[in-house]
Every structure is written in structure tokens, then in C-alpha cells.
Write the C-alpha cells for this entry.
Amino acid sequence: MTRLRACLGAAAAVTLAAAGTTALVSSNASGATSALSNRWYAAAPYLMPLDNDPPDPAAIMDATGLKAFQLAFVLAPNGGGCSPTWGGTAPVSSDTAVQSMISTIRAKGGDVSVSIGGYGGTKLGQACADAASTAAAYQQVITKYGLHAIDFDLEEPEYENSAAIKNEIGAAKILQQNNPGLYVSVTTAGTADGTGWFGKQMLLEAKSQGFTPNNFSIMPFDGGFNGAASQTGALTNFNSILQSTFGWDQATAYAHEGFSGMNGRSDTGEYFTQADFQTVLDYATSHNMDRFTFWSLNRDRQCSPPDNGGRTSGTCSSVTQNSWDFAKYSVRFAGVTPPTTTPTPTPTPTPTSCKPAWSSTAVYTQGNEVSYNQHNWKAKWWTQNEVPGASEWGPWQDEGAC
């Protein structure tokens, strides 16, 4: 998603079973004392807490009834090493900003899952020596934030590295064993036939290690998709892959299958509207699928102009919408009716001031910020003479209008 790991020591835990869901009660530094139902973690949309103009989660909760958020992404340090960071730059060990956001969400009766991996960046499975050290790094994240749920987002380029995937799957299995009741999702790329060769190899690795998460989710976007019909077709095909890989019947495969979409305009120019989300939601609920999520809440608001000049943004959807329209589909998947009115209107963000203008001759390194075409941009890596926004996969991250 472009959109965008110390000794193992789980917090004291007690597993509770009620109404077919599992909850974890723990005592930890985060102050969390209870968990939501699994359905909420399955419905948690992605939110970048430190990048892409993070929205106020409290406002989203008030407007939609949403209770769970999928915070992204935990990576290895950009400078190397086997310790967890946010986005490769902000160490989890010293974090206070994400902790504050989590506290705000929990104070309103919600909770979070944390997603590790994502598209690009160095993953801990690549940087750590083996599954045990990878798990130890992730355990730091679970313990720091008192997590009841975690997401392994295994995609390019990591999932092309068999050793890294072996570490990630092995780590997921260790965390599952050492944190009773932990909700574990695994997210990977989607294709028209369900998932590609590397996705299928990842499933085979899970099978060989005897690891079964709550769900395997595919992302049916950025792969030649065109609306909901192409996405539900991919989900049907992925179900067949799960059946053949694990020897499950159709119903069992659906019970371990998830959908992770992209709202509005995708990185490759596909469009997914509110109507498309409703169609996929109907498919997911009618087939008793385990997960329905999307990338991302940072993008769940209207651009100015609404089509954003035919570009994809990390901070708005590039389709006509009300703020948090897409979040309401996650709420419905969790089994709740969103409010029909917004208790606390969320004003359209005032454009921020523009950074220094981009120069074709200047050299920029990761984190440098510039302005171009009335948008601010942040460099994802070293670059020179590459126009911001010229390529969907280029070195610049759109930080919104200025």
C-alpha cells in the first residue's frame, strides 16, 4: 500500500470467549484494559498517524461510529537494524505522538491495530536475522501499545524475498502463541485470479509452518481492476486458492478471507466509488468473510477540486464525497449502523503554507519538503530533477494542497 523487533515477554493475558469472538484483557504500559470484538479489528481502516495529514480520529469516531483504526506502518530503521520504527524514521521505543493518538481513541471506547510492512521501505523480516528476532522486535510494539490486534502487510518488495517472508510468517506464529487472543491479519497483493505467484508462495510458507491467522486479506487494486465486479471476482478466485492451499471447504476459506480496498482513485488510476464499496461489502457479508478494510482514512475526504486534477493523493480520495463516507462501510461490516447526521461537523482543512519551491537542479534526500503545483511534497528517497507528481511510483509523497 503506498497509499503509501529484547526478549519475548507478553503482557499477562486472559482469554475470554463470548458470542463467537475472542477478547484479550491485559495490563500494560498503554493503560488498555479491554479489547473490542474481533469484528471491529477486522473492520479497522488504515490510518497513517504521522504522515499524509493525519485526520483527527475522535472526529471520525463521532461522525461515523467507527471504533477501530489500523495504524500504519512499522518498519525497520532506515539506517539499518532490527528495531521497530514508524515509517523507518521514528523509533517506537521513544514514541509519544502515536501513543497520544491511541490514548485518545481508547478514551472514546475504541482501540487500534498496528500494521507492519506495507509497500516500500525496509521490513523487519528483511533486517532481522531470523523469525525469533523478528518476533522480538514486533513484541516491543505489542507491549508498548498494549495491542490486541496486529496486521502483517506483506507485499513488494519484501514478499519477493523468501527468507524475509519466512521470518515474517515465523514471527507471526510466535506472536500468536505468546499473546493469547491476539487478532492477526495477513494482507497481500491482489490480482484478477486472486493473488500472484509471490502471494501464493507466502500462503505455502504459512502452510509449511502450520500458521493460520484470523484471515488472509488481498488488496484488489493497482492491478488492472475496474470497479466492484472485478474485485468480487478476485475475492472468489482467492477463495479457491485458500481452499486448494489449506484443504479448507468454501465456507472455511471465506471465514479466513479478507478484503482490503482503496477508496477513490488508486495509485494506478483505477476508481472505486461509494457504490463499489457497497457492492463489495454486500459480497463480504453474504459470504461471511472475516475482514473488510481499506486504504485509507487519510484519503477519506474530498479533494479540492474533487477530482484533484486527475491525480492520486495521500490526503484525499479524488472522487466526490462527504468526509468519512468510506469509513461508514467499515462500520457496517462491524455490525453497527452509522449515524445519519454528523454530531461534530469536521471543517474542510485550511491549506497549509507552501514549502520552498521545487528546483530541478537541487538534490533532495529523504524527508526534504518542497512545494510544486500548489501542493506540498515530501521526498521518500534521494532524488534530483524528478518532477513531484509526475509518476505514481516516484520519489515524492503528496502532502496536500498549500
User: Anything to note?
Assistant: The first strand starts at residue 13 and ends at 18. Residues 228-246 form the longest helix (19 residues). Residues 1-30, 342-349 have pLDDT under 50 and may be disordered. The CA atoms of residues 30 and 146 lie 5 Å apart.
